[in-house]
Recover the amino acids of this structure.
């Protein structure tokens, strides 16, 4: 047709050309259907707004409680009278804890090696 007529005529195409156009068309149809045919849309929106407000109030209370706990924690942490300094027994307990962890690690690695030998 191009060789015969010397040009390619342009035609109006009602269908989308690519996926983006298809998505836009689907969203427009969905929105039109939602607004035109949904009878309870106003009530749904009002209920959603109320629920959002309730959630915000709950979150504000939770944040206020958490802030109060942080203040108490900081007061206790920096209170010089209740702060006990580390003593030798604390270091002994730490050393025992580290040794127990190392022992557990060695036993676990040995069990893995034994399992590989069985394969």
């Amino acid at each position: 047709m191009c060789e015969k007529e010397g040009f390619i005529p342009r035609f109006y195409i009602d269908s989308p050309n690519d996926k983006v156009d298809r998505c836009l068309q689907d969203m427009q149809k969905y929105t039109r259907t939602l607004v035109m045919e949904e009878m309870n849309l106003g009530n749904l929106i009002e209920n959603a707004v109320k629920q959002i407000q309730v959630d915000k109030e709950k979150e504000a209370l939770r944040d206020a409680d958490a802030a109060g706990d942080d203040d108490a924690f900081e007061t206790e942490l920096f209170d010089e009278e209740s702060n006990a300094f580390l003593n030798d027994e604390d270091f002994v307990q730490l050393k025992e804890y580290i040794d127990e962890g190392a022992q557990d690690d060695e036993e676990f690695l040995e069990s893995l090696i034994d399992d590989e030998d069985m394969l």
